[in-house]
Amino acid sequence: QLIAESPARKRRGGDTVNISGPITRCVTAAVVLFLSSAAPAQEPVPPPDAAGQDSSRYHNDPFVRPGFITPLTIPDSWPTNIPRNPHNLSPAETKTRLVMLGTGMPSPNPYRAGPSYALVVNGSPYLVDAGEGIWRSMAKAALINGDELAQAFFPGKLKYLFLTHLHQDHTIGIPSLLLSPFNWIFRIQQEIYGPEGTRDMVDHILAAWKIDTQAAIADGNNPEGGRAAGHDILFDEYGLVYEDDNVTVEAYRTKHARLQDTFAYRFTTEDRVIVFTGDGGPYHPNIVRAARNADVLVTETVTEDNIQYAPWGGDTVEAKKEEIFRFHFSPTVLARIANEANVKTIVLSHEQNYNSGED
C-alpha cells in the first residue's frame, strides 16, 4: 500500500533501475523522514549577479554559481529548489519508523548530513551509522515532527548504534554521540556494534577526549554509569548481533572497496523488516540474503550515465567505472539485488548523482 510519494524530481543522466517495487517512496513499511525530499517549490528569486556569475536564491539560501570547482563546490552539492525539511509520511498506526537523518556522501554537501539513520520501534531508537551532523539532524527531525520523535530521541534513550563499516563518512559523528554532556547527565550506557576495529575506535575516541571527560568530573559530573562500549562483529558470514523486545538485528558480511569487514543489517520488528546495506560495490549474495522479502531496503547507488563527471576514480570513463563500482552499487547491480531479494521498497541514500554544471 502506497502511503505517500514525493513528486518525481527529474534525474539527470537517465539512469534507470528496473525493479518491481517503488524507489525512494514511503509505504506502510515505515515512516521515511527525508532531510532532502522532492516536492513542488517556488520559483527562485535571483539576486544581483556576483562577479559575473549566475546567482539565485533557493528558499532564502543565496547561491552563486562557482567558477572554481573544488570538493567543496562540485555541482552535486549545489542547492536544488526543493524543501529540505523532514516530512512525516508514516501511517498513524505503524510501530516502526525509519528516520533518514543524513543522506550525503563524503563531499561536504551543505544540504545533506553524512550517512546516518534511525529506526524507531515502539518509541525506542536504534541508530545505524553516524555520519557528520547526526546529533543536529536528530534535533531537526524532532523539532519539525513533534513530540513523538522528540521523545524517541530523548538523550537518555540513545543507547544503540550499529556501524555498517568504518569509513570516516559513516563514523565521524560518533564523538558527538559519545561525548555529549547529556551522556553524563543521563548516565547513558551506549553499545556500539560494528566490524572488527569498532571497539578500538570507541576506546580511542574516549581517550582522545580525556581532558574533556576529566573536566566534566571536576565540574561535579560523574561519568560512571554513563559509558560507551564497542563490540566487534567477528563471525564469517552472518548471524545474530542484538535482540530485545522490539527488534532482532542480524548482520551479513558484505564487500565494500578494500575493506575486509563490512556488514549489512537486517532489523526484524513486530510489523516490518528494514534492511540497511551500507555502502555497496560488486554484487554480493549476502546482500540478497539480508534483504530477502524486506519491506524497506535502505541502500545506495551511483549514476552510471553521468559517471564521467565524477571527480575521482580515474582519467577515463572506463577507469572511473572500474574503480567507483568497487565502492558503490551500479544501478544494474542494485536492480539485480532488489529483484532477487523480492524487496518491496527501496530508499536511496548516500546521494551520488554526478552532473556537469550545465545540467
Describe this structure in words.
By secondary structure, the chain is α/β, with parallel strands linked by helices. The chain has a single domain (17-39, 82-349), classed as Metallo-beta-lactamase, Chain A, CATH 3.60.15. Helices cover 22% and strands 24% of the residues. The chain has helices at residues 134-145, 147-152, 168-171, 174-179, 181-186, 198-208, 210-218, 285-291, 317-324, 331-341, and strands spanning 2-4, 26-27, 32-33, 55-58, 61-64, 96-102, 116-121, 124-130, 160-162, 190-194, 228-232, 238-243, 248-256, 259-268, 273-276, 296-300, 346-349. Strands 3-6-7-8-9-10-11 form a 7-stranded mixed sheet. Strand 15 (273-276), helix 8 and strand 16 (296-300) form a beta-alpha-beta unit. The longest helix is centred in the middle third of the chain and has 12 residues, at 134-145. The radius of gyration is 20 Å and the shape is globular.
Q: Helix fraction?
A: 10-25%
Largest sheet: 7 strands, mixed
Radius of gyration: 20 Å
Question: What is the element string, with H for helices and E for strands?
Answer: EEEEEEEEHHEHHHEHHEEEEEHEHHE
End-to-end CA span: 35 Å
Please give the CATH architecture.
4-Layer Sandwich
Number of helices: 10
- Total domain count: 1
**Poorly predicted runs of 5 or more residues:** 1-17, 24-52
Shape: globular
GO molecular function, one term: 3'-tRNA processing endoribonuclease activity
Keywords: Hydrolase
Pfam family, one: Lactamase_B_2
Domain Metallo-beta-lactamase: 113-312
